[in-house]
């Protein structure tokens, strides 16, 4: 079994690539504490010829992942070929899920993909401090809530945001 220390980021590659790239830039910038082991760094050679060969590569990434971050943009909820499949795999693997709202919402909203709408997940707006906070804290909270049988959307309190100066 692989050592699970990676963060798998799921997003609309056609419309939201800039947000994914910004997250990787935060991680590369020595002036920020933001850091994560990116599952997309694994098997980065692209084989786009067959859907099943792509999914095989993605399954290898999931085998090393401990967390799913879903970048939720205007079209994410409509993507069923890979994005929906990635969320299904994460749910099967019981990975903690962070929904990152690219529209700035601090809660689950109408843009949330149906696949995770009723699942245990935390929702945050796109921003370095709050995404970093979620990545550090949500996995432990997720497993504690799962153990208690809880599900559905979660949000950080207004005080959490105030404590971060947001």
What keywords describe this structure?
166 residues; alpha/beta; Rossmann fold; six-stranded parallel beta sheet; 6 helices; 6 strands; 39% helix
Secondary structure tally: strands: 6
The largest sheet is: 6 strands, parallel
Mean pLDDT: 89
Tally of individual helices: 6
Structural class: alpha/beta
What is the highest CATH level, the class? Alpha Beta
What is Rg?
15 Å
Protein name: Thoeris protein ThsB TIR-like domain-containing protein
Domain Thoeris protein ThsB TIR-like: 8-105
Keywords: Plasmid
Pfam families: ThsB_TIR
Question: Mind sketching the topology for me?
Answer:
Layout: E1 6-10, H1 17-28, E2 37-38, H2 51-62, E3 65-72, H3 83-92, E4 97-101, H4 114-117, E5 121-125, H5 128-147, E6 153-155, H6 158-163
Parallel strand pairs: 1-2, 1-3, 3-4, 4-5, 5-6
Keywords: Plasmid
Domain Thoeris protein ThsB TIR-like: 8-105
Protein name: Thoeris protein ThsB TIR-like domain-containing protein
